[in-house]
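Lab notebook, page 48
Experiment: co-folding of the full assembly
Goal: obtain a model of how the components sit together before planning crosslinking
Operator: M.T.
Materials (sequences as entered):
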Amino acid sequence: MRHLLIVLLFIAIVAFVALPASAQAPKPAPGGKPWTAPKTSWGDPDLQGIWTSDDCIGTPMNRAAQFGDRLYYTEKELADRESVLARQSETDKQEFVADNARAGTGPPGHWGERARRPCKQTSLVTDPPNGRTPDILPEARLRPVGEGAGNNNPRADSPEDFSYYIRCITRGVAGSIFPVIYGNGQQIIQGPGYVTILQEMVHEARVIPLDGRPHAGSNYRSYMGDARGRWEGNTLVIETTNFLGGKTGIGLNGGGVPTSEALKLTERFTRVGPNVLNYEVTIDDPKTYAGAFKVGFPLTQEPGYENFEYACHEGNNAMFNSLSGARAQEKAQPTK
Amino acid sequence: MRKTFAVVIAAAGMLMATMPLWAHHAFSAEFDANKPIKFRATVVKMDWINPHAWIHVDVKGDNGTVTRWMIEAAAPNALLRRGWNKQSLLPGTEINIEGFQAKDGTNKGNGSIITFLDGRKLFVGSSGVGEGPPR
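Observation: model returned without errors.
Model output:
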């Protein structure tokens, strides 16, 4: 019996050490009680609250070659990034416009959200070990890609030439949670047998049954797919299939090469502290990528953060402006 | 209307060199780097709408003609989190606006630099203009 206990203890230690740093539960304060994951009144792990991926804003999807297989920054690298955030925070407090400020056509710096603390990761892709998205298959590259926000010279003839994001339709499952410049809120609401995730930007509401029912028939297809959830210990696992193909990609805001109808996403939400929820998604689309891969980052709860209504269509002057701008440009440069 | 636009600098367009991935914006698609605007204006109303707020202003020309302009601002979410509310920019407030006009020639502009008359910034944020969040 004693040997069995020692073996179990050894396995537990190995398993704990193997976890990435961000997935480990915080150490209790000296003399304090260790944090335990809260439960709902009906006994499920309680993930409820508004979470944001703001802290990893700007972390690249694919890791720079210089970091090799290293997912986390060193303490020194983190300290450097922390000081950048501190300087930025000081600059944000400037009350008057700087003498050297000059107008540009780009958005002013105050338009975006800020990370509250430096992201520990060198890339959003956590697996394969090199932190880089597997190759995109040749047939997938043939799929049309809607004109996105990064294109400053769009040739769009109609709203349908723009991406589903710009059209206020959807950013897809992955694009709705990956950290971008703003609108990163994820509100989790639970009830017995269900989890709902309200996503701030482009107003998604994912209602996910947890009762073990099978996926919908293969004829049922949607932008956000058909999600089924289950608990594995304290981890919420959501498996989503039945996507429409050729709509959104796995890039930020659903950009990049659109995925196929064969896409299967497996998401894992694990609360590792009172204000930290680790997120990981496995992307498996054999008609788009040469292999499956994982993207992960922490979500945090921040004081005062709320999901504000995303009345996208009502305010989408950019659609009219971009199209009228394209027409004006054609008029000025007929041979564009 | 006699234009009160000031020609800022011919090379202003060069400032837009690197654009982050902004939400619903291909800025150069909407706004013309060759049409800089700079004027004093009176706030008529502010639309608190996503993806971006718009400030409606009246601009008085030298001959007394008043022209209505729409100036694009940050997303309401970003403004609210920086301490803004519906009382922050009341109708009648006078502001200075510097930016660029819409490509199609309508009276819409991006509010690149917006200040109160005493020079205080209308929006809290980095003083750098045309920059994005940390990359």
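Interpretation: The two ends of chain A are 80 Å apart (CA to CA).
Next step: discuss with group before ordering constructs.
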